[in-house]
Specification:
With about 210 residues, the chain is mainly β. It is about 10% helix and about 50% strand. It has one helix spanning about 1-25; strands spanning about 40-50, 55-60, 70-75, 80-85, 95-100, 105-115, 120, 125-130, 135-140, 145-160, 165-180, 185-195, 200-205.
Length: about 210
């Protein structure tokens, strides 16, 4: 019995010594911190499909304002990538639009970065994108840079109102940027040829 009491006393003394050391290093936390509870940070997170090809992400900031909100997306429910960042705002509702969602089920969550550098994650929400979005371009109207995304290599031609080819680029794939600053303000025709699928599409492009 005496040996048991001595063992307990030694353990208690070690715990006190460890606590003192951690406290001196600023590493001892007092009280419970629940990193899963984000109700004070993000409220009513929703994802809404727009125009069958874009996803609008909306949420209400909680009583605790984050320094940064990072919008993250996953196509498999496991690995998430950051697709947008918003600084602290006083808006009652925050909206952000995913211009390039992936066909199928897209899952979204918000990573909240607090003033002390700590981070917390919201619950996830999802949206389903149907149809063929193998090629996309935005913004439209465009200022100086046109962003295009293609799952297969494509040839892109931009034609003015007189039928003259103004910009031509071949074998673009993935996410690419095209400098259109040389175009005058007006309406153009963008023509896309997919050699892999042997298809051609065209659409109107407005230059600001």
């Amino acid at each position: 019995m005496l040996r048991y009491l001595l063992t307990c006393l030694a353990g208690f003394c070690s715990l006190i010594t460890f606590s003192q050391e951690m406290s001196s290093l600023g590493l001892l936390f007092v009280g419970k911190i629940n990193f899963q509870d984000t109700s004070s940070l993000v409220i009513s997170l929703t994802a809404t499909v727009k125009d069958n090809s874009k996803v609008k992400i909306s949420w209400k900031p909680g009583t605790i304002r984050s320094e940064f909100y990072s919008i993250e997306r996953s196509v498999n429910g496991a690995a998430f990538e950051t697709i947008g960042v918003i600084k602290q705002t006083s808006e009652a509702v925050i909206d952000w639009q995913d211009e390039l969602p992936v066909a199928g089920k897209d899952q979204y969550r918000i990573r909240c970065t607090l003033g002390d550098g700590s981070q917390r994650y919201s619950a996830t929400t999802s949206a389903i994108i149907a149809g063929n979005i193998s090629f996309r371009f935005y913004p439209n109207p465009v200022d100086n840079v046109l962003i295009v995304r293609s799952e297969n290599p494509v040839d892109i031609v931009i034609i003015d109102g007189n039928g003259k080819t103004r910009i031509s680029q071949n074998q673009l794939s993935g996410l690419q940027m095209i400098n259109v600053s040389s175009l005058e303000k007006g309406i153009y025709l963008i023509r896309v040829y997919n050699r892999y699928l042997n298809t051609q599409i065209q659409d109107r492009l407005v230059k600001n």
